[in-house]
Design goal:
Layout: H1 6-16, H2 23-34, H3 38-53, E1 56-57, E2 64-65, E3 79-86, H4 89-98, E4 103-107, H5 125-137, E5 147-150, H6 156-172, E6 177-180, H7 196-204
Parallel strand pairs: 3-4, 3-5, 5-6
Antiparallel strand pairs: 1-2
Length: 209
């Protein structure tokens, strides 16, 4: 005998498929929605549907946007010579919040991860290489991409992706400037609690004070 109505059980199963959501959290969310007024629930459902019908992937940078090209790629005030490569669209939000970067972006939608069968062809690496080639082929070096900032995550997958990109980009254009986000001690951290890798990166990335 089923303990829960099918509609509720199916909703719980759907929530469990979301990243970071376990069985107990999925149950709490489902029962919470069960008590939400019908009008609010319909509005919530409409927003879920709109998530697909009202968003696109920018054909240039592969970021999630309302229009193609996205507002950043189509902004003439952005520095067209810089491209910051990130793993996910949420990384673009993080960089933009700093207010310090005024260039363009390229979203890979993942990182190279052989253990999970994610290779270079499964993420938007070739599209980045095409962007650089396209700029070069125009014959206007002053308007082309001059620097690629690798802002992949400082973990094994992110480092593997950064190394692969560096090799491919350098093979394509040896003069292209390729930089990596500095890694080191976060503000407010104590040195005694930092691991060896973090301290090593902090020493390598030191600058004049």
């Amino acid at each position: 005998m089923a303990l829960l109505p099918k509609a509720l059980s199916r909703l719980i199963e759907s929530f469990e498929k979301l990243p970071g959501i376990g069985p107990k959290t999925a149950q709490r969310l489902a029962f919470y929605l069960l008590h939400v007024p019908e009008e609010e629930l319909k509005a919530f459902a409409d927003r879920l549907i709109a998530l697909k019908s009202h968003t696109v992937l920018c054909s240039v940078c592969k970021n999630v946007a309302e229009e193609d090209p996205c507002s950043i790629c189509s902004d003439p005030s952005r520095d067209q010579s810089m491209v910051c490569v990130v793993e996910n669209p949420t990384d673009v939000l993080s960089v933009e919040k700093t207010g310090k970067y005024k260039g363009l972006y390229h979203v890979l939608h993942g990182a190279i991860d052989p253990l999970n069968n994610i290779g270079p062809d499964e993420i938007y690496i070739e599209d980045l290489l095409k962007r650089v080639r396209f700029r070069e082929s125009r014959g206007f070096p002053e308007s082309g991409i001059k620097e690629i900032i690798l802002a992949t995550n400082p973990n094994m997958e992110g480092e593997a992706t950064a190394m692969y990109l560096t090799k491919q980009l350098k093979a394509q254009n040896a003069k292209l400037k390729i930089t990596r986000l500095a890694h080191g001690l976060p503000v407010g951290a104590d040195i005694e609690y930092a691991d060896e890798v973090t301290l090593s990166r902090a020493l390598e990335g030191r600058r004049e004070y």
